[in-house]
């Protein structure tokens, strides 16, 4: 039980250590924030999902990029479509909740929800993300 509890606590402890280090040193810890990519069928769905994400305070900002062409395999067949891409800026600690929420409202059977940690950036912008997205 102690091992399981320790493993469950690790992300929480890591998050607290990173927050403490950032507060004490005033420096940005690489990976504290992330950008998530979410594909959508059309602009209306993209706007609806973006607004839902913002209403839940799961992001500081969501960009809606214009149509792009996509080629992909689906059920063994090569498909081609146009998609709208959302770029979601948030805390890395919110990615799991963001992914679960988007899957619950997205019309795709398997929506693309992937994220990358933010390594560097404008310190004032990163601080703004921090202030805009509530802690866990």
Describe the structure.
The protein is of the alpha+beta class and 136 residues long. It folds into 2 domains: 1-30, no CATH class; 31-132, Alpha-Beta Plaits (2-Layer Sandwich), CATH 3.30.70. The protein is built from 4 helices and 4 strands, in the order H-E-H-E-E-H-E-H. It has a 4-stranded antiparallel β-sheet. A hairpin with a 2-residue loop joins strand 2 and strand 3. It is elongated, with a radius of gyration of 17 Å. 21% of the residues are buried. This is CUTA protein.
Highlighted features:
signal, N-reg_PII/ATP_PRibTrfase_C, Ion_tolerance_CutA, copper ion binding, four-stranded antiparallel sheet, 4 helices, alpha+beta, CUTA protein, Alpha-Beta Plaits, 4 strands, 136 residues
- Mean of the pLDDT scores? 88
* Helix and strand element order: HEHEEHEH
CATH fold node name of the largest domain: Alpha-Beta Plaits
Outline the biggest β-sheet. 4 strands, antiparallel
Total individual domains? 2
Report the β-strand fraction as a percent range: 25-35%
Sum up the overall morphology in one term.
elongated
- Please identify the top-level CATH class of the largest domain: Alpha Beta
Number of strands: 4
Q: What does the radius of gyration come to?
A: 17 Å
Terminal Cα span: 24 Å
SSE-based structural type: alpha+beta
Specify the number of helices: 4
List low-pLDDT spans: none
Named CATH architecture of the largest domain: 2-Layer Sandwich
Provide the spatial order of strands within the biggest beta sheet: 2-3-1-4
As a percent range, the share of helical residues equals 40-55%
InterPro entries: Ion_tolerance_CutA, N-reg_PII-like_a/b, N-reg_PII/ATP_PRibTrfase_C
Subunit structure: Homotrimer.
Protein name: CUTA protein
Signal peptide: 1-15
């Amino acid at each position: 039980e102690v091992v399981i509890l320790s493993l469950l606590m690790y992300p929480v402890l890591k998050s607290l250590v990173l927050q403490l280090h950032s507060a004490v040193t005033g420096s940005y810890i690489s990976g504290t924030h992330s950008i998530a990519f979410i594909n959508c069928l059309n602009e209306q769905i993209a706007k609806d999902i973006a607004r839902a994400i913002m209403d839940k305070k799961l992001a500081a900002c969501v960009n809606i990029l214009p149509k792009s062409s996509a080629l992909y395999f689906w059920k063994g067949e090569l498909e081609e479509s146009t998609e709208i891409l959302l770029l979601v800026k948030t805390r890395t600690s919110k990615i799991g909740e963001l992914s679960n929420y988007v899957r619950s409202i997205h019309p795709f059977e398997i929506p693309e929800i992937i994220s990358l940690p933010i390594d560097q950036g404008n310190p004032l912008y990163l601080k703004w993300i921090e202030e805009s997205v509530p802690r866990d």
